[in-house]
Design goal:
Length: about 80
């Protein structure tokens, strides 16, 4: 589960990405296209072409987690991130 207190950076991928990709597909984008360290304390944010959906990739030493916009709203994580 995402612990927002441990996040140090948020990367927003420029342009749109195919949100049909699985966790592993987005991991490949972070590593190969963006050339970023997947295991730093960061969130990686992707949006679709219409810019009405987002997915957030959270990776730590033990887990990979993919969060969609709907899950963010349900869990009220956006409010935690803003405050």
């Amino acid at each position: 589960m995402l612990n927002i207190d441990k996040v140090e950076k948020v990367y927003i991928a420029c342009g749109y990405k195919d949100l049909r990709k699985s966790i592993d597909g987005l991991v490949m984008i972070v590593q190969n296209s963006l050339k970023l360290n997947l295991f730093e304390k960061a969130l990686f944010v992707f949006c679709n072409k219409q810019m009405d959906k987002i997915k957030i990739l959270n990776v730590d030493e033990a887990t990979k987690e993919l969060i969609s916009k709907g899950e963010l709203m349900e869990n009220k994580l956006i409010k935690k991130m803003i405050n």
